[in-house]
Amino acid sequence: MARLSVRVWILIIALIFAALMISPRFSNGVLIRSVELNSTAYTEGLRPGMIITKIQSIPISDSVAYGQALESLFPVGEPIKLTIDTKSDGSFIFLTNSTPELSISSVPRSNIKTGLDLSGGARALVKPVNVTLSSSELSDLIEITNQRLNAFGISDITVKSVRDLEGATYMLVEVAGATPTDLRELVGQQGKFEAKVGNVTVFSGGEQDIRDVCRTDATCSGIESCFPTAEGYACNFYFTIYLAEAAAEKQALVTGNLSLDESAAYLSEKLYLYVDDKEVDSLNIAADLRGRKTTEISIQGSGAGATQEEALVEARKQMKKLQTILITGSLPYTLEIVKLDTLSPLLGKEFLKSILLLGALVFVIVSVILFIMYRNIKITLAVILTMFSEAFITLGIAALLKWNLDAPSIAGIIAGMGTGVNDQIVLIDEAVHDTQSSVKERIKRALFIIVGAFFTIVAAMIPLFWAGAGLLRGFALTTIIGVSVGILITRPAFADILKKL
Amino acid sequence: MEETAPVQTAGKDEHHPKRDWYDRYYKLLLVLPVVLFIGCLVYLGVFYSQQGDFFIKDSSLAGGTSITINGDIDPTDLESALKQSFDDIYVRTISDVRSGDILAVIVESSATPEQLKPAIEETLGYELSPSNSTIEFSGSTLSQNFYRQLIIAIIVSFILMSIVIFFLFRTFVPSIAVIFAAFADIVMAVAVVNLLGIRISAAGIAAFLMLIGYSVDTDILLTTRVLKKHEGSVNTRIYGAFKTGMFMTLTGLAAVLPAFLLVTSLPDSFRQIFLILAIGLCGDMINTWLTNASILKWYAVKRGMH
After folding, report:
1. Which residues does chain B have within 8 Å of residue A336's beta carbon, measured at their own beta carbons?
2. How far apart are the first and last CA of chain B?
3. For A174-186, what is each residue's pLDDT tens digit?
4. Contact between A425 and B256 using a beta-carbon 8 Å cutoff
5. End-to-end CA distance of chain A
6. Quick check: A448 and B228 CB within 8 A?
7. Strand partners, A342
8. Which CATH class is domain B64-138?
9. Which of B21, B48, B177, B211 could cysteine-pair with B295, CB 3.0–4.6 Å?
10. Looking at beta carbons, which residues of chain B come within 8 Å of A169?
11. What is the pLDDT of residues A147-200, one digit of tens each?
12. What confidence tier does A4 reach under pLDDT thresholds 50, 70, 90?
């Protein structure tokens, strides 16, 4: 066998790299997507990302088997011993009389992620009415939307800002999997924040009542202490907020009427924090604050977890959540949902099956045509191999970028393969069939055509990165990745292989 | 049928009758695509004056709701029931090409999901949930923005492509010939899309951008062979490029058509991309090998190339 050239080695390395990125898996089981905080399953240590392989020693192959296994066990009157085996995190045994509060999904077969149009889910494009947001205002909006969705127990969300061709900014909210029926309210509401003592609103979120919130300064915010509890660990956090004069006066007025609680350390009423009329937290008010006009208030809270590390992370998260709603709680504008899609996963499944069939078919058709034209099995195989490599490396790069492949992205990959075949035909026709000019000149000419075609397709696709709030970015991205892989990796290797044939 | 030729004639000589023929008629060959091109322009002009736009837009670009209901549902019953309350209702089906079974029904209207969903539920007699249906809603302002931006994107894309072509060939007439062929591709594809009554989606417009990049491949091949290759006559160079280029386009179509014909299940965006590419590639055969080749030949003759 002839020695492989550097270019062929580069192709081989790229293929191995793509395989590592995609990392196909054939394991059975179900993936834990989220665990209800403070549930038994949570305190016992079950966490998102773990893979459940067995329940009560019954193998769990997929989400259907998971549902069946739990249906046969629950509900029961007396708690039973539930044994959950995981793939690499050991077994969990605990007493429970109800279904563990987990949300699960099938184990992904690879690192390739499919877009919402294929996997199902919901997508909302949100725009503030009559205002243009600065980038910091927009990131505040994203923060509060994230926080609100999390508070509602929706996992697997991405909230990000998108900018369109004309500079307008939107917030794009994507929820994978189960679609919450109230998504419209969740992302479309203004996000009113209120702090109440009893029924009286003392202050609201936003600049009018809250002058400042200490966030990054270690002297006025941070984690105070961590300690073991019955269920694990808890950590306390604190941070200072600075009230505006009017809010401070109101606070003095309201707390002046309160009595002390039994411990005499705190007042009889708590300070309740509401987001969109939903209570999110309650704080004890120190006794010495009664009736006093103070602009500086120390807000405290805690986060709990099974280990100290988890408690610390949780406390930081809670602190950030509170700080966020205090600053941005009350959005000074109303939001409009300009696009809302709830996508069923059913046709997506059908689609993926069809895509595999289609892939096989295209390979067969193209091979047959190539073979009829060139009557050369080696050339045909080389083209098919290159075509396959291109698609595979593109998928590898998509997995590396954690890009969600939606239907247009897959169309882009196929179109990229099409240009790849075209280029190879040019190379073959120049290199093999034309024997009049010198090899150097022929290759130079073929490269000129290929590079020219490459630049025109890249130039043509670039505007799609911005047009239409980037919702069609995937199509442009996979096409450009595909043709770039073609020109940088597979085409040079193919030219070398061709020389040997 | 045919007897094997006892004497092997030299390859080049075989092309002589063809070359004579081409030398005589290449200008005449220009007439067909030009007539076709003007015909498409006139059609699009009439279309624009009637519809107020160059495309029939679907709900993602015109604003409104698109509800896809999975399952074998009778589209005519649904349409007649919904027609009473929504006058712009549009119903079509997605069916499996192999078996002909209806896989899903798509209902489009400018109404909001809050109006459309209950009406469909009433007709079908069951509730629509994310597990049995897909609901897509686009506000009208957003859709207008999207549409305007995608049209701008097509124009920008075309300009960028033209710059690349000028940079590649650095001669006026051949570059303009390529750009004109690409422009004719787009015009013809838009005309055919409208003739077929296709409601264009955002993904469909994106397909036009790809067509801009994809269709010039063969033009670049042709122009390179004619201008940069020095062996053989202009005619043999054009003929050589024709063989390679047609082969490229046909393999392209072979890859694109099954995507349209076989992947009938959703998402629709996927099929529309391939349908538009297929239409564009067919038009491209005319525009490359009749329009662009004839202009190039003309240019070569004027420049005294042979």
Report:
1. 139
2. 37
3. 887 655 555 776 6
4. no
5. 12
6. yes
7. A122, B135
8. alpha beta
9. B177
10. none
11. 667 655 566 778 888 877 777 888 888 887 655 555 776 676 655 678 888 788
12. confident
Instruction: With residue A59 as reference, give the H or E element that holds it.
Output: strand A58-59
B73-94: buried (b, 16+ CB within 10 Å) or exposed (e) per residue?
Answer: beeeebbeebeeebeebbbebb
For B168-190, give one letter per residue: b (16+ CB within 10 A) or e: bbeeeebbbbbbbbbbbbbbbbb
Any chain A CB within 8 A of the CB of B62? Answer: no
Measure the CA–CA gap between B217 and B197, rounded to whole angstroms: 28
Nearest to A274 by CA among A336, A202, A215, A184: A202
Tokens describing residue A497: 């292989």
Answer whether A344 sits within 8 Å of B210, measured CB to CB.
no
Which of A29-38, A292-301, B187-196, B270-279 has maximum average pLDDT?
B187-196
Nearest residue to A112 via CA among A470, A406, A480 = A406
Superfamily of domain B16-57+142-302 in the CATH hierarchy: Multidrug efflux transporter AcrB transmembrane domain (1.20.1640.10)
- pTM across the whole model: 0.76
The DSSP secondary structure of A69-111, one letter per residue, reads HHHHH-S-SS-EEEEEEESSS-EEEEEESS--SEEEEEPPSSS
Q: Are strands A335-343 and B133-138 parallel, antiparallel or unpaired?
A: antiparallel
- What the block records as the tokens of A130 is 């009559």
> Which pair of tokens denotes residue A76?
């029961």
Q: For the purposes of burial, counting CB atoms within 10 Å of the CB of B101, is it exposed (0-12), middle (13-18) or buried (19 or more)?
A: exposed
Inter-chain touch B145–A166, beta carbons under 8 Å: yes
CB contact (8 A) between residue B150 and residue A467: yes
Rounded CA separation A380/A368 (Å): 8
Q: Judge whether B135 and B109 are in contact, CB under 8 Å.
A: no
Residues of A in contact with B138 (CB under 8 A): 338-339
- pLDDT tens, residue by residue, A344-375: 777 777 777 778 888 888 888 888 988 988 88
Judged by a CB distance cut-off of 8 A, whether residue B75 touches chain A is no
Q: CB pairs under 8 A, 24+ apart, for A247-251? A: A247/A202, A247/A203, A247/A208, A247/A209, A247/A210, A248/A293, A248/A294, A248/A295, A249/A293, A250/A202, A250/A203, A251/A197, A251/A202, A251/A203, A251/A289, A251/A293, A251/A294, A251/A297
Structure letter (DSSP) for residue A153: T
B82 in the Ramachandran plot: left (φ > 0), alpha (ψ -120 to 50) or beta? Answer: alpha
C-alpha to C-alpha distance for A495 and B207, rounded to whole angstroms: 30
From chain B residues 271-300, the ones with a CB under 8 A of any chain A CB are: 273-274, 277
ipTM of the complex: 0.86
Q: Which CATH number fits domain A6-24+345-500: 1.20.1640.10, 3.30.40.10, 1.10.3720.10, 3.20.20.150?
A: 1.20.1640.10
For chain B, the farthest-separated pair of C-alpha atoms sits apart, in whole angstroms, at 80
- Whole-number Cα distances in Å, A350 to A100, A378, B95: 31, 35, 12
* CATH 3.30.70.3400 is held by the domain A121-190+335-342: yes
Mean pLDDT, chain A, rounded, equals 81
| Residue carrying the six token digits 């605990």 | A94
Cβ of A459 and B157 within 8 Å? yes
Q: Minimal Cα–Cα distance from A406 to chain B, Å?
A: 9
Token pair for A279:
């209570």
pLDDT reported for residue A298:
78
Q: What are phi and psi of A36, to 5 degrees?
A: -55, 125
Tell me the torsion sign for CA atoms A270, A276, A277, A281: negative
What CA–CA distance (Å, rounded) separates A140 from A142?
5
B2 pLDDT above the threshold of 50: no
* H-run or E-run covering A113: strand A113-114
CA distance A319 to B139: 37
B positions 10-39 inside 8 Å of A (CB): none
Portions of chain A given CATH number 3.30.70.3400: 121-190+335-342
